[in-house]
Design a protein that fits this description.
heterodimer; A: 319 residues; alpha+beta; Multidrug efflux transporter AcrB transmembrane fold; Alpha-Beta Plaits; 2 domains; four-stranded antiparallel beta sheet; two-stranded parallel ribbon; 8 helices; elongated; B: 580 residues; 4 domains; six-stranded mixed beta sheet
Chain lengths: 319, 580
């Protein structure tokens, strides 16, 4: 076996632990400063509507003024090409409106009436309406929490089954690290949080784990080949050996997600961006955080693995 | 497993995939736009199409026949022949030597009969189109445009009204009836291909209406509980009002509503309603106008009806519609029928008369039999009676409406992301891995093909988030190949022969690939349980992509390498853009 010269990644480990902590603190502080998450209608019930104003040259401030004094507080954002005068209206439904049978028609109707009063009859074209009622929103929050938890536990169990517990714990810490950072960043830039965000988080977890597992797999293999090696040198070697794979894989995912990011708008656009950031962070954490942490957890020496499913070169010669 | 067998498996899978994808392919790429529009048409549009086509064909035939007595029936109308021959047989006429146009006309007694035959053919051809469309990979509402509504049946309120906890049967019945009501209401709007289904075992109803849907109209069917009533018809007033309308035709507006009837003609406690019957296209057809009494004494609210069924009269074998009233309803109905023997009772649903029956005697006990319908009308009346009034309040929980224009933008965005994502990755792999890049790219394309085929086989819908999942699958597949390639490269650079390097590379990479795919699969399977369509689409596509990626990276890509080594006797492995 050709032994590449290992790059001493783990020398940087304390600096990287610190960097991670600082970055996470910074993005979460940013989220707090910006007034918390920008919750989408999945988690904050109400109406989100994209309208196009076809008469005159209305500005956002005009639209806001028109909707002022309505029963529901509307937030207004311009979307897309400014010359098309498209705006996203967002209204939050109150909890006591849960039993109103046709709440979306009520809110949407009021918005339309208020806009038409200001900009003229037939000046409002509704392009897209999305509504989530208070009762469903509650269910979604509960459901999402449980599903995310169950998924993480199932993944932990699988890694535990395939590796030792120290690997599983280190993998879990590094996989918690990634979404926490990405979530903080989402809060800081006030990207909308929806169920799609949960999909992003779980995908990031999947990717980050993927990277981590590839490195762990290699550490385990190296343990048997280089029994006398210092544990940190050992993981440096494994990381170095898998480095080109890690970079190539992340690059291809980035390339394909960049395509999505460039061509789409709205929630999928955000989705792609969050995923791109997540992949970068995931790659970073599996190189700098997961492996050194695993050594630290297992008390300075990676646990020896049972050799049951491992392949020796003898196995590999059969066709 | 021998290599021959592996090759056979792959070819077989591709063939099966191709077989399943062909309808989708031919629909989106080979079917004319006009036919696609037709298949998505509303009932009215289909009727107009059938009638215009039939009328045009008839005129063509007439012209042709007038020009040339001996002109043969054009081949595209051969579908008429079985019926033509049948009519000749029935009339005991001998077949002519040649089926000329006049000979074909002779088989029909009237022109209307002939027209009817043509219309039926065109109507069937549209429903065939619809069936074809049902078998292909569907586009989600975010791509095709349309409306999706999640409605919750408020069973708590129903339990409070009944004063007891609901059994599972009560809940099933209430939701099933609510769905029936929604179906009938949506049908009256003539929306094409509505999807109305219940959440498995739950109290939620999902409604999807593709295409450009007018929100105002849809809000109407979501609103309110609907009204069903049995009213006594006032025959004298009906005659008076109809005479007045005949004398004042301008009082009828374009929609058929009548305004400005003088009070002395109409009379108090009365209401003018229109009687509609469904034609064979399923569209309401005007029958006549009747005046009904709306006083309490002459009116029974439909919520008193507990159940309705269709049976056959044991003696006459005519279909009868039976319905049962609750006790309060039974009392009221007895008094009402007693006072109105010999009069007509109209069944009124949401302001339209749907059926009428003459009261022959006072009906006590709340079990009512109505006769005088054919089987189809009887069934329709049963549905009306059962579903006219909603048993529960419906609450709109979520509502999404996407204009068709936005849908078109979304399609081009989706197609562009897939295309460019693929191009970026394919080029990168070729540059970085050279010869082996071809293997990876081939495996990648086969993977995309298989994922789309699986989506098609299970009749799933492709949404924009599904496309995002597909793009992510590109990344996953490539990653699996990269893991293998890096391993092969290491072994090869360490001095192994190509065959051994490839073998060890695949063996070593096996568990790494397995582990990474299984963990991602766990995440995607959990995500697919989330009851939000957008996330589901993403998770399901990704899960299929993961399984398919396992197959292509371990099986397909391996076979290509083996082919290079065994068949092409490759002495070198082309796997890197630089030397070791």
């Amino acid at each position: 076996m050709l032994v590449k010269k290992a790059i001493p990644f783990s020398k940087l480990r304390f600096f990287m632990y610190g960097l991670s902590i600082v970055m996470i603190v910074v993005v979460w502080a940013g989220t707090v400063v910006r007034g918390g998450f920008n919750l989408g209608i999945d988690f904050k019930p109400g109406l989100s509507e994209t309208v196009q104003l076809t008469v005159g040259n209305p500005e956002v401030s005009d639209v806001r003024a028109a909707l002022k004094g309505s029963d529901h507080d509307f937030t207004v954002q311009p979307v897309g090409d400014p010359s098309l005068h498209q705006f996203q209206l967002r209204a939050v439904a109150a909890a006591d409106e849960a039993k109103v049978a046709n709440l979306q028609a009520v809110i949407s109707g009021k918005a339309k009436a208020a806009l038409e009063a200001k900009f003229g009859v037939d000046s409002v074209k509704v392009l897209q309406t999305e509504f989530i009622g208070p009762s469903l929103s509650n269910e979604l929050v509960i459901q999402t929490t449980w599903i995310a938890l169950a998924a993480i536990i199932a993944i932990l169990l699988y890694i535990w089954l395939r590796f030792k517990f120290a690997y599983a714990l280190a993998a879990i810490i590094s996989l918690i690290h990634d979404p926490i950072f990405v979530l903080g960043l989402i809060g800081t830039v006030q990207m909308e949080v929806s169920t799609a965000t949960i999909a992003v988080i779980l995908t990031i977890i999947g990717y980050s784990l993927n990277d981590t597992i590839v490195v762990f797999d290699r550490i385990r293999e190296n343990l048997r080949l280089h029994q006398s090696m210092n544990p940190y040198e050992l993981i440096d070697l494994a990381i170095t050996q898998t480095l080109s794979r890690t970079i190539v894989s992340s690059l291809t995912v980035l390339l394909s997600m960049v395509a999505v990011y460039v061509f789409t708008t709205g929630s999928i656009h955000d989705f792609a961006l969050a995923l791109i950031i997540g992949v970068v962070v995931g790659t970073y954490s599996s190189i700098f955080i997961a492996a050194p942490l695993m050594v630290a957890i297992s008390g300075g020496k990676p646990p020896e693995e049972k050799a049951k499913k491992e392949l020796t070169e003898k196995d590999a010669t059969e066709a | 497993m021998t290599k021959r067998f592996r090759l056979f498996t792959i070819v077989l899978l591709l063939a099966v995939g191709g077989w399943f994808l062909y309808p989708t392919f031919s629909w989106y790429l080979l079917t004319p736009e006009s036919q696609k529009v037709l298949a998505a048409g509303s009932l009215e549009q289909i009727r107009d199409y059938a009638q215009t086509e039939a009328r045009t064909k008839l005129n063509e035939l007439k012209d042709l026949g007038a020009k040339d007595q001996n002109a043969l029936l054009p081949e595209d109308l051969n579908f008429l022949m079985p019926l033509v021959k049948h009519n000749y047989d029935v009339a005991k006429m001998p077949y002519p030597a040649k089926w000329t146009i006049p000979a074909v006309f002779k088989a029909y007694t009237t022109e209307a009969d002939f027209l009817y035959g043509l219309e039926e053919h065109y109507r069937k051809s549209v429903s065939d189109l619809k069936t074809r469309k049902g078998k292909i990979l569907q586009l989600g509402l975010d791509l095709s445009g349309g409306m999706s509504v999640v409605i919750k049946a408020d069973l708590d309120a129903l339990a409070a009204k009944k004063g007891k906890a609901l059994t599972q049967a009560d809940r099933d019945d209430a939701v099933a009836r609510a769905i029936e009501v929604l179906k009938t209401r949506i049908d009256t709007f003539g929306v094409s291909e509505p999807v109305i289904k219940r959440e498995a075992g739950g109290d939620r109803i999902f409604v999807e209406l593709p295409g450009d849907v007018d929100p105002e109209r849809v809000n109407a069917f979501l609103r309110g509980k609907g009204s069903l009533s049995l009213n006594i018809v006032d025959d004298d007033a009906t005659k008076r009002v109809n005479d007045w309308i005949a004398a004042n035709p301008t009082a009828v507006d374009a929609k058929g509503d009548v305004t400005g009837i003088p009070a002395d003609v109409m009379g108090a406690g009365l209401q003018l309603l229109t009687y509609y019957k469904k034609d064979r296209f399923g569209i309401d057809q005007f029958v006549n106008r009747q005046v009904v009494k709306v006083d309490d004494k002459f009116f029974l609210d439909g919520t008193h009806i507990t159940t309705a069924s269709v049976e056959r009269d044991q003696i006459s074998n005519q279909p009868t519609v039976n319905f049962i009233l609750d006790s309060a309803g039974a009392d009221h109905f007895y008094k009402m029928t007693q006072a109105n023997v010999g009069k007509t009772m109209a069944v009124v649903l949401d302001g339209r008369i749907r059926a009428g029956a003459r009261i022959s005697e006072a009906i006590a006990g709340g079990s009512v039999r109505v006769t005088g319908f054919d089987a189809k009308d009887a069934n329709e009346l049963k549905t009306t009676l059962k579903t006219g009034a909603l048993p529960v309040n419906l609450i709109v929980q979520s509502y999404t409406n996407i204009g068709a224009i936005l849908g078109k933008d979304a399609i081009s965005a989706g197609v562009n992301s897939i295309l460019w994502g693929l191009i970026f990755v394919v080029v990168f792999m070729l540059v970085y891995y050279k010869g082996a890049g071809i293997n990876a790219n081939l495996a990648l394309l086969i993977n995309m093909f298989l994922v789309i085929a699986v989506l098609g086989v299970f009749n799933m819908t492709l949404t924009l988030t599904g496309i995002a999942g597909l793009v992510l699958t590109v990344g996953i597949t490539v990653d699996a190949n990269v893991i293998v390639f890096e391993r092969i490269k290491e072994e090869y650079w360490a001095g192994k022969s190509p065959a051994t390097a490839i073998d060890i590379g695949f063996k070593r990479a096996f568990w790494t690939i397995m582990d990474s795919h299984v963990t991602a699969l766990i995440a995607s399977l959990f995500l697919s349980m989330l009851s939000k369509g957008a996330v589901q689409g993403f998770a399901i596509t990704m899960a299929i992509g993961l399984v398919s990626s396992l197959f292509t990276s371990l099986f397909v890509s391996r076979l290509i390498f083996d082919f290079e080594v065994d068949v092409l006797k490759a002495k070198k492995v082309s796997i890197a853009w630089r030397k070791a």
